[in-house]
Specification:
The protein is of the alpha+beta class. It is built from 39 helices and 23 strands. Strands 1, 2, 3, 4, 5, 6, 7, 10, 11 and 12 form a ten-stranded mixed sheet that branches. Strand 19 and strand 20 form a beta hairpin. It is elongated and about 115 Å long. The chain starts with a strand and ends in a 13-residue tail after the last helix.
């Protein structure tokens, strides 16, 4: 006699749900083997269902439950209505069984006495050729894995009839075990069918697959996983953790419980590396939820214990091994459809360009090869130790002043990274920076050019043009480390930022580079912020919401890095100080804030020396040097009417933004050095403008100039003009026209440097008589005044910071009688150094200095060390107090700031790490941004090509009037097509 079947349908209210429910009920009436009874559970308002005659003709009863009722809870509500001896068929309003579905399921149970559950083949309701599920298994660590999801149904899995579990939708549960095999509500809607299969296997039964029992399902039904990615990740991970606690031996449950949070931390790292940041918060939510559900775990373990008759080893053959999991997740190697554009760094000549730039750099800065450190201009030594470098970069006690506690300049972090690269002698890292600046600039410019052109020659031109920028060469000659670092960073920012909407890898890299760029030049923040706002508006206008989220992330590292110093400056009402140049405040040459100065800025020169031309030629002739920039400027202007005009106009907007930044910052003073105003360096804005200028010129050369010979002529003229323009700057060191000096390794006398070696907390009071008759006083901690210790907290301060010792310094040189050594020692000061101003010393300053020497010599408690090349040095004949540490409140602030910054930057770093999946996704997309569909792809020539370059040029000249592409040639992917789905394939998730 056939077994009775009782169907339980779980439905949600709503018009679309009601339509799907009616189709499901119609499908039940068309079954060749009809269900004996149907119970409908409505999770929500069931008034419309109750009023439907079509529903009333099919169901024997309607149960109305709360809208928050889960599928498992709804099935439990209907269980009392199931007749004794009837099998239970679990359905939802979106599960429409095909006519033979129930007959096949019932037949599978009848043919397999050991089967406790019969599972159907679930297919997509919109395309029944696509399988949604046919059996589920799990790994050794409990991760659920679909066996056939997303595949095209060609009958390839129809021979399989045994599985560890299945999707909960459409399963038929044998009547004898229906009361003990009930869906577990603690699983939160995920892995319910898998859990039933595991419990059935432990009870001596099994899950039998019925591939001929087909049921069409929708992805948004009551028994399906949630559609939002974050919610789906939460319920999936929660179900896995709950099953782990429910399945584990009782002695290991505490160990599993204790491992939940460490595993959440580890999986957070894995998610970020795998470019799945949306899974981070669900991961922690699932871990915390699983930790507190003691009752749910106990009930699940009790259900297993009450039904279990077999050993856990009985499910081992049906588990998926790690190797099988990797094979199931691996979608092949390489990019689908082949790479759209290759890098070709070596074959395209990029490596040779960098090598050539290195030769030019060594020839231009040969003397630096013997220097242990580099000085002059805004250059200072670095700390002796890596620890000292990072202490300067953290919130806390500053390396200058007395008891000055607060945030570090973001630029100090850049210096710390640079010094760490040569940890044995951090100051030598600056020498290496100057030696490798030109090749690094070519390298960065070359990679930035890959976003604009596929042509190897154009990429080389882009790299060389970027390295020969007048503002960059001026920064090298004048010793401006922040400006040099900015120019080296900007092309990488362009390379990553223009594709940040495509992938999390690019967004992570761009976020770190953006923070570094603004740390070197805070004055660029308004201009770059404007460009970012325009970009995100364009991304949102095209409906790339995932891309907009990635671009929002770009600001996160910058915000956490700048937030402490911004809050500090706002507290003191010094808003404009946020945009002050970081590092050592040096009043070097720069263009004036008048009309003539702004004209110089418009031509790309940040100083009136015109990159050295004014120093080697008669000014009447040298004034025409800006004409050497004209060729590349004309090429850039033509980008607005090039075939790729969108990219060209964008590059011109970048140029205008940079020029506007340079114009607005010229002559603006927010920093002071010993009372001397120091204007913001406008060259950083010119670096941004030069990026747009070179980019626009490349757009013109790549798309507007189609004749190869004409393109070669244009590149040659522009390149030679820039090379000639750079000659005076590149020869400046050999002709003694630069402020760069050999060292010093310390700004303090060697005696002090030796005492404070290893960044010991030894303070030196430096007194400098000024030409105006005043006295500058400064307290330096350690072996030297260092670049990383400089802070805009002091350089831009309008009132004394920390403990003001200016009065004590004046009294020290006066005739006032007091315990000077004792008061200085209370502040931790060990030495007093009397220095003299740089450059020409006035008579007043010289007289003041001589009188100061006499006054200090007459003071008791001061032991004169002697005259040094850094000034006259005295040692205090008193025990100096230890430098006070942070208070408990300050230590709390330090921990909070440091932790937040480390977390955000670590997350950005993990996102930026390339994986096989991210590289494959990147290769599958065009490197070119803004490519027009009508543009041909420029592919690299292979060694077996039978045509040489000259023959190709002649052929192209002869066919200049012909279409660029024949009708049979496949049209290259446009940027619009590429970015239509900016979500790349993520790295397969490792199980934990």
């Amino acid at each position: 006699m056939p077994t009775r079947v009782h169907a339980i349908i779980v439905a949600r209210p709503g018009s679309s749900s009601r339509a799907q429910l009616l189709r499901t009920l119609d499908a039940l009436t068309l079954q060749t083997r009809r269900a004996d009874a149907v119970t409908l559970v409505v999770c929500g308002d069931g008034s419309s269902v109750r009023a439907s005659e079509a529903v009333g003709r099919v169901v024997e009863g309607i149960i109305e439950a709360r809208s928050s009722t889960s599928f498992a809870e709804a099935v439990e509500l209907a269980r009392p209505r199931v007749a004794e001896g009837a099998a239970v068929w679990l359905l939802a309003h979106d599960t429409a069984p095909h006519p033979h579905a129930l007959a096949q399921l019932a037949g599978a149970l009848e043919r397999s006495p050991s089967a406790a559950i019969a599972a159907p083949k679930l297919v997509n309701a919109d395309d029944d050729r696509e399988m949604v599920s046919l059996g589920v298994t799990m790994t050794a660590l409990g991760r659920s894995v679909e066996l056939a999801a997303g595949e095209l149904d060609q009958g390839q899995h129809d021979g399989r009839d045994d599985a560890l579990g299945s999707d909960i939708r459409g399963v038929l549960i044998r009547s004898e075990v229906r009361d003990r095999l009930r869906p577990d509500a603690a699983l939160a809607g995920a892995d319910e069918g898998l859990d039933l299969g595991v419990r059935a296997r432990l009870g001596g039964g099994r899950v039998v697959l019925a591939p001929n029992a087909r049921i069409s399902v929708h992805p948004d039904g009551p028994a399906a996983l949630p559609q939002p990615a974050a919610q789906r990740a939460f319920v999936t991970r929660l179900a896995q953790l709950h099953r782990r606690l429910a399945y584990a031996p009782v002695m290991t449950v505490p160990l599993h419980w204790l491992s939940l949070l460490p595993l959440a931390l580890w999986r957070t790292i894995v998610h970020l590396i795998g470019k799945r940041p949306a899974s981070v918060f669900p991961e922690w939510g699932a871990a915390l939820t699983a930790m507190v559900r003691f009752g749910a775990v106990a009930r699940s373990r009790q259900r297993i214990r009450s039904f279990r008759t077999a050993h856990w080893s009985s499910i081992a053959p049906l588990r998926m091994t790690r190797a099988q999991l990797h094979r199931s997740l691996d979608d092949g190697h390489g990019s689908e459809g082949g790479a759209v554009s290759e890098l070709n760094f070596f074959s395209g000549g990029g490596a040779w360009a960098v090598l050539g730039a290195l030769v030019v750099s060594v020839a231009s800065f040969t003397t630096l090869l013997a220097w242990p450190a580099i000085g002059g201009g805004a250059l200072l030594p670095l700390r002796d130790t890596v620890t000292g470098l990072w202490q300067d970069a953290a919130w806390g006690l500053r390396g200058v002043g007395v008891e000055i506690t607060g945030p570090a300049d973001p630029f100090a972090s850049v210096i710390a990274v640079l010094g760490t690269l040569w940890g044995g002698a951090p100051s030598f890292a600056m020498v290496l920076l100057w030696l490798f600046a030109l090749p690094l600039a070519v390298l960065g410019g070359w990679f930035a050019a890959t976003r604009i052109t596929d042509r190897g020659g154009m990429r080389i031109f882009g790299g060389v043009a970027w390295a020969l920028a007048p503002t960059f060469l001026t920064a090298l000659v004048d010793g401006r480390p922040a400006a040099v670092l900015l120019h080296l960073i900007l092309p990488w920012l362009f390379h990553a930022a223009v594709v940040a909407h495509r992938s999390w890898g690019a967004a992570g890299a761009a976020s770190i580079i953006l923070a570094a760029a603004l740390a070197c030049a805070p004055a660029l923040a308004p201009g770059i912020g404007l460009l970012w706002l325009i970009a995100i508006i364009l991304v949102l206008a095209r409906g790339w919401f995932h891309g907009a989220v990635r671009m929002l992330w770009m600001l996160a590292p910058t915000v956490v890095l700048f937030l402490p110093i911004v809050v500090w400056q706002l507290q003191y009402g010094n808003v404009w100080a946020i945009f002050a140049d970081p590092g050592f405040a040096w009043a070097g040459p720069q263009a004036a804030a008048d009309g003539a100065g702004r004209m110089l800025l418009a031509t790309g020169f940040p100083t009136d020396t015109l990159s050295g031309w004014m120093q080697i030629l008669d000014p009447a002739i040298a004034v025409w040097a800006p004409l050497l920039i004209a060729p590349i400027a004309l090429l850039a202007l033509a980008a607005a009417i090039a075939p790729r005009w969108g990219a060209g106009i964008t590059m011109l907007v970048v140029t205008l933004t940079g020029l506007a930044t340079a114009f607005l910052t010229a002559g603006v003073t927010v920093t002071f050095a010993h009372g001397v105003p120091v204007a913001i360096w406008p060259g950083t804005g010119l670096s941004l403008a030069w990026a747009g200028l070179v980019g626009a010129a490349l757009v013109t050369l790549d798309t507007a100039i189609t004749l190869p010979r004409l393109r070669i002529v244009a590149v040659t003229i522009a390149g030679l003009s820039l090379a000639v323009c750079a000659v005076p700057a590149l020869a400046a060191l050999h002709t003694d026209r630069t402020v760069l000096t050999n060292g010093p390794t310390s700004t303090l006398p060697a005696y002090v440097a030796a005492e404070a070696r290893g960044d010991r907390e030894i303070a030196t009071l430096v007194l400098t008589p000024q030409n105006s008759g005043g006295l500058a006083s400064e307290v330096v901690w350690g072996a030297s005044d260092t670049l990383g210790a400089q802070t805009t907290m002091l350089n831009t301060a309008t009132e004394p910071q920390g403990i003001d010792i200016s009065a004590l310094a004046v009294d020290l040189l006066s005739t006032r009688t007091f315990d000077a050594p004792g008061e200085l020692a209370e502040h931790g000061i060990h030495f007093v150094l009397l220095d003299q101003v740089e450059g020409d010393e006035s008579d007043a300053a010289r007289a003041f200095r001589v009188a100061a020497v006499t006054a200090l010599d007459q003071r008791a408690g001061f032991v004169k060390v002697g005259e040094t090349d850094k000034g006259v040095l005295w040692r205090l004949d008193a025990a100096s107090a230890e430098r006070p540490g942070l208070t408990s409140a300050e230590a709390g602030t330090w921990r909070a700031v440091t932790t937040l910054q480390l977390i955000v930057f670590f997350a950005a770093l993990l996102l930026s790490i390339p994986t096989r999946a991210s590289r494959r996704a990147a290769r599958a997309q065009s490197r070119i941004v803004g490519r027009s569909p009508a543009e041909p792809l420029v592919l690299p020539k292979r060694a077996d090509d039978n045509f040489d370059d000259n023959f190709d040029d002649e052929r192209e000249d002869e066919r200049e009037d012909e279409p660029v592409e024949s009708a049979s040639d496949p049209e290259p992917a446009s940027e619009q097509e590429i970015a239509a789905d900016p979500e790349p394939a993520s790295e397969p998730e490792e199980e934990r």
